From TrEMBL:
It comes from Salegentibacter maritimus. This is Transcription termination/antitermination protein NusA. CDD domains: KH-II_NusA_rpt1, KH-II_NusA_rpt2. It comes from the Bacteria. Belongs to the NusA family. Residues 233-306, 307-388 form the K Homology domain. Keywords: Cytoplasm, RNA-binding, Transcription, Transcription antitermination, Transcription regulation, Transcription termination. It is found in: Cytoplasm. SMART domains: KH. Monomer. Binds directly to the core enzyme of the DNA-dependent RNA polymerase and to nascent RNA. Participates in both transcription termination and antitermination. Its main location: cytoplasm.
Length: 410
């Protein structure tokens, strides 16, 4: 294979991959030097001249002329007789530059050289892709469903880049078909080997935050700031908003007339119920707002231990807890307080932890998770509601109710 034909075949990569001339020349020289080092043991005495635009390449080996019979390193030295075959007037001690033809490297070396070039260009592409998407971490991105697997959906963007949407980063109600456009947040970008792995997420709180920026002009412009976002993806979310402009109602601006502004966000998130609340540095007021729609009678705060005892009327308890305990759990995450719910006017109640001899600690913990910390708070709930609120089996709940009722019957 002639030098020019080989370089023409290499130049295809420049057009296909949109690699600039300087980068391609650097890659070519690196690849050829690797081939020279493999054949001759070293490459520091070779000059490589690459011109992809013209489609030519020259390799020159530089050696020193030594007397016949004194050649110790054939790569660095050439005998006087051999040197004079190149030019008859060479003398001992002079430098000789001799062109090396690619065919001299051998057919196998040329094939390996081309494969190495392909590998280097892919490595270059992957590095650029990694850098590009690394800068997009935390930003919204849209790509098309290419392949659906059991544990992940493989997406392709307009440039053909592969993006992974794992099962645990999908909203439970998500259902996509091949060809569908999927919107999410670039959660992470990692190099595994030389290949970048790009992870998309639809469950990250920052996805909801970025949707607010995208759909609500005041948030995009910075007139309204998002202080915190907590989510149970596809079920419920709470977003705390604030503004430095007293003329703006941040909650009203985010929700819009009859929910018009937030409707597209809710739809994108599989009808996720989004509570937008006014942020405040007043912890008591913040917790009150976070537990909405429940109406709180009083709150007792322990700011040092970050706990809050909330008193409510019995009919408000289920509102504070919410379906599946989502409301009280998200209110705690939003405010940073561990919230305990107590019923107003209920006397002679007993905390569940007092029954640790008869009820296993993990069962007590599960009731506490949904705001049921006392015996009467459990007994006031219907069996069906307890099954729905907790992750406990019906038989386990019946046993707990039996133990608690016996306490009050004595």
């Amino acid at each position: 294979m002639e030098n020019i034909a080989l370089i023409e075949s290499f130049s295809e990569f420049k057009d296909d991959k949109l690699i600039d001339r300087v980068t391609l020349m650097a890659i070519l020289e690196d690849v050829f030097r690797s081939a020279l080092k493999k054949k001759y043991g070293e490459d520091d005495n070779f000059d490589i001249i690459v011109n992809p635009d013209k489609g030519d390449l020259e390799i020159w080996r530089n050696r020193v002329v030594v007397a016949d019979g004194e050649v110790e390193d054939p790569n660095q030295e050439i005998s006087l007789t051999e040197a004079r075959k190149i030019e008859p007037d060479f003398e001992v001690g002079e430098d000789v530059s001799e062109e090396v033809k690619l065919v001299d490297l051998g057919r196998r070396a040329i094939l390996a050289l081309r494969q190495n070039l392909i590998s280097k260009i892919h490595e270059h592409d992957n590095t650029n892709i990694f850098k590009h998407f690394k800068e997009l971490e935390g930003e919204i991105y849209t790509a098309e469903v290419h392949h659906i697997r059991h544990r992940a959906i493989i997406l392709l963007d307009d440039e053909g880049n592969e993006i992974v949407l794992p099962k645990d980063r999908q909203i439970p109600s998500d259902f996509f078909r091949k060809g569908d456009n999927v919107k999410g947040i670039i959660e992470s970008v990692e190099l595994k080997g030389n290949k970048p792995t790009i992870i998309l997420s639809r469950t990250a709180p920052v996805f909801l935050e970025k949707l607010f920026e995208q759909e609500i002009p005041e948030v995009f412009d910075g007139l309204i700031t998002i202080q915190n976002v907590v989510r149970v993806p596809g079920e419920k979310a709470k977003v705390a908003v604030d503004t430095y402009d007293d003329r703006i109602d941040p909650v009203g601006a985010c929700v819009g007339m009859k929910g018009s502004r937030i409707h597209s966000i809710v739809r994108e998130l599989g009808n996720e119920n989004i509570d937008v609340i006014n942020f405040t540095n007043n912890d008591q007021l913040y917790i009150t707002r976070a537990l909405s729609p429940a109406k709180i009678t009083s709150i007792k705060l322990d700011e040092e231990n970050k706990t809050a005892e909330v008193m409510l009327k019995p009919e408000e308890v289920s509102k504070a807890i919410g379906r599946g305990g989502h409301n009280i759990r998200l209110a705690g995450q939003l405010t940073g307080y561990e919230i305990d719910v107590f019923r107003e006017g209920v006397e002679e109640d007993v905390e569940l932890k007092e029954f640790s001899d008869e009820i296993e600690s993990w069962v007590i913990k599960e009731f506490s998770r949904v705001g049921l910390d006392t015996a009467k708070s459990v007994l006031e709930q219907e069996l069906e509601d307890l099954i729905r609120l907790t992750d406990l089996e019906e038989e386990t709940i019946r046993e707990v109710v039996k133990v608690l009722r016996e306490e009050f019957e004595e």
